[in-house]
């Protein structure tokens, strides 16, 4: 029987996933890992194989493959899509198979997001509500309609039933360029989503934009710090499996600072002027037509999302980069 720890990772070509995979291959336990990655592109799969990864071609649409890969794993790092409910259900079926075959609950390190904490401020107000990842009673007050919450609740229920140990990494606005061998090889994405979306819209309209007045507050975290959090959770599970919170007590917020949308838009306005892309550094409010065009009609960027990473820091996570780094 193999003594290897079977690790399955989704999203290895992505911003977060590649950063986590890099750290897994650099981990002191790396020699004991047998890492499998689900890769959509045959060409990229061949690239990952050159780095010693068992790259399997497929996607979340391949239900049997996804279930089988999950059922074969001891640990799953899921970094793809916090809203992929059907994929989560498929993986949970795989975990149940694993548990029924072995009697041991496998480990599921899933990516949620602080979007679950958002409100409908539309950039018009800040909030005093701050959510604490070490306070499960407070987190249970989140409505089931909150972003990502339907997936989170399915996973938490599976943990309650005992056939999986679930840990929910919950990143804030992630910034910074991902780096490492997978990025250098052109196999993975080095860019985040939220701030680049704001940049794209502002460039096209010729002036920095914001939702409402931009006074809403969001937390932030650097890609290197949040990727470290996944590994710190793994390390905590290995060192103290019974003492490391999971399920309803398994939220690990990835955040290390706060910003308002206005602050980001003002900085973007200054950069656009410096680059000759705008005549004014002052951000203006996106019109409804622009919200529809650039953000699919959503005021999400104008929401509040505030949190405390007390549980994450209690297991030894030490983020190094603060909001100052976000602005340069």
UniProtKB/TrEMBL annotation:
Highest taxon, organism lineage: Eukaryota
GO terms in the biological process aspect are: alpha-amino acid biosynthetic process
Which PANTHER family does the entry mention?
NAD(P)-BINDING DOMAIN-CONTAINING PROTEIN-RELATED, PROTEIN YEEZ
* InterPro entries for this protein: NAD(P)-bd_dom_sf, NAD(P)-dependent_oxidoreduct, NmrA-like, Semialdehyde_DH_NAD-bd
What name has this protein been given in UniProt? Semialdehyde dehydrogenase NAD-binding domain-containing protein
Which GO MF term does the entry hold, naming one?
aldehyde dehydrogenase (NAD+) activity
Q: Quote any Pfam family the record assigns.
A: NmrA
Lineage in the entry? Eukaryota, Fungi, Dikarya, Basidiomycota, Agaricomycotina
Record-annotated membrane-spanning stretches: none
User: Which ranges carry the Semialdehyde dehydrogenase NAD-binding domain?
Assistant: 6-142
For this UniProt entry, what's an example GO CC term? cytoplasm
